[in-house]
Amino acid sequence: MKTRFDAIIIGGGILGVSIAYELAKAGLKNICVLERHYLASGSTGRCGGGFRQQWSTEPNTRLAMASVKRLEGIEAELGYQTEFFQGGYLIVAHSDEEVAQFRKNVAMQQRLGLDVKMVGPDQAREIVPHLDVSKIKMATWCPTDGHISPFLLTQAYANAAKRLGAEIHLWTTVTGLMKKSNTFFVMTDKGPYECNLLFNCAGSFARTIGSMINVDIPVDPYRHEILVTEPVERLWNPMVISFGIGLYTRQEKNGGVVMGMGDPNEPVGTCVGSSMHFMYEMSRRFTTLFPKLAGLRIVRQWAGLYEMTADAQPILGPVDEVENFYQASGFSGHGLMLAPAVSQLMAEQVTTGRTSIPIDDLHVRRLRGAQAVHREKSVV
Amino acid sequence: MKIVCRCQDVTEEEVVAALRQGATTIDEIKRLVRAGMGPCQGRTCRRLVSQIIARELKEPMAQVFPPTFRPPNRPVPFKLVMAEYERQEADERKKAAKAKGGKK
């Protein structure tokens, strides 16, 4: 088995495989992805599968817009069906403070050229007929947002990367890192690997990987639970988000309604077990917003990890301490939707040293020390 | 055409195609072709899928990596979950009231 590569990517989630594909496409040879279990077995395969461009900070909005543009042609480029569907995103506001914040967000997003607008309760009901509009004041609506199957997108990138010569080694756990002159030595349970370029795409375990070579990556994992109902006839197309109630929900292509929520009491940790508390709380929140759907049956619940940074924005690019050690982590629950753009930018960074969208503001150094951070507010 | 997962209409050919793409476990098959994602949660297809994996990868059934089992055990409507929650809350309140009454 080959163990000497030009570039090694730690993590076989959406970030790892998409970066492998973009590097191979940019002309790099000898690329290898190391994955602890199987592809998309971490946060990627557990996520809600939405992609949206409606953010409260400019860097996130720019990245997301580039990402969606890229996703629109992804099935043709990678030659794989991914259940890509631009059903839109409806984000509902329950209070005057939220309406004020949303107006600010929409003004910023429109300035960047996004097709997004504020809609009243009646229009919101037209878009999502089962919504109890007495609970909402306004909503923001972007028709080019949507959702995609995280497994199929990961597999699409992985297959395309393999066709371009990249290798993917599954069931390989990284246990240690060392750098001697310009070579990284990557210790794994399957033996040592060597490379010149190293990418940390370990998601919730990015901090662990960084600490192996004494680089602090301030990313904290939090469990987020999610459930899905039995398949039913088409109810609505968009992803519906409420930051006030704290839930997001969408209907999958096959008819099941997927929903998840944020829990402010969740402690830091990598546990992905399911809880009864979530089932109660999710039922309460969902039926608050969709009282007509109280008879829907839950078939499965599971959980994944949000890898949170202090400002809920990703950590991208090189680090100051170790040369040629690139980071793409800390996506704070939004890795899938940003990956198509981020992977391209990472490839540009490595091959040309410059990126078409500036990512200097997302360098890890912003999170160190005591300066104030500009926090992304649109997070469930 | 042999149907393996009758909840999601998954055929044997689809499972084999997923294995050809590099999948080796029941969970990967589930993620790629949806076998085991329907109302029965893999009660029927789990064994069939692991048989196909064992046959295609030429390894004993015991070597096939076991899938994750997730709650709930049977499909449960939201209103039933809510009713159970309210019943437990009421029980708690009754218990608290009783404990208070006992102290007098």
Sequence-ordered SSE layout with sheet pairings:
The complex is a heterodimer of chains A (380) and B (104).
Chain A lengths: L6 E4 L3 H12 L5 E4 L15 E2 L6 H15 L1 H5 L10 E5 L2 H16 L5 E3 L1 H7 L10 E5 L3 E2 L2 H14 L3 E3 L4 E7 L2 E6 L2 E5 L1 E4 L5 H6 L8 E10 L9 E4 L4 E5 L5 E4 L15 H14 L7 E12 L6 E4 L6 E5 L5 H18 L28
Helix pairs in contact in A: 1-6, 1-9, 2-9
Chain B lengths: L2 E3 L4 E2 H9 L5 H8 L11 H13 L18 E2 H26 L1
Antiparallel strand pairs in B: 1-2
Kindly list the characteristics that best describe this protein:
heterodimer, A: 380 residues, alpha/beta, FAD/NAD(P)-binding domain, D-Amino Acid Oxidase, Chain A, domain 2, 2 domains, eight-stranded mixed sheet, 9 helices, 19 strands, B: 104 residues, mainly alpha, Arc Repressor Mutant, subunit A, two-stranded antiparallel sheet, 4 helices, elongated
Helix fraction of chain A by DSSP (H/I, runs of at least 4): 25-40%
CATH fold name of the largest domain in chain B: Arc Repressor Mutant, subunit A
Q: Could you give the count of β-strands of chain A? A: 19
State the CATH superfamily name of the largest domain in chain B. Answer: BFD-like [2Fe-2S]-binding domain
Please name the two chains that share the biggest interface, counting residues whose Cβ lies under 8 Å from a Cβ on the partner chain. Answer: A-B, 34 and 28 residues
Which percent bin holds the helix content of chain B? 40-55%
Distance between the termini of chain A: 43 Å
- Shape, principal axes of CA atoms of chain B: elongated
The low-pLDDT segments of chain B are: none
CATH architecture of the largest domain in chain B: Orthogonal Bundle
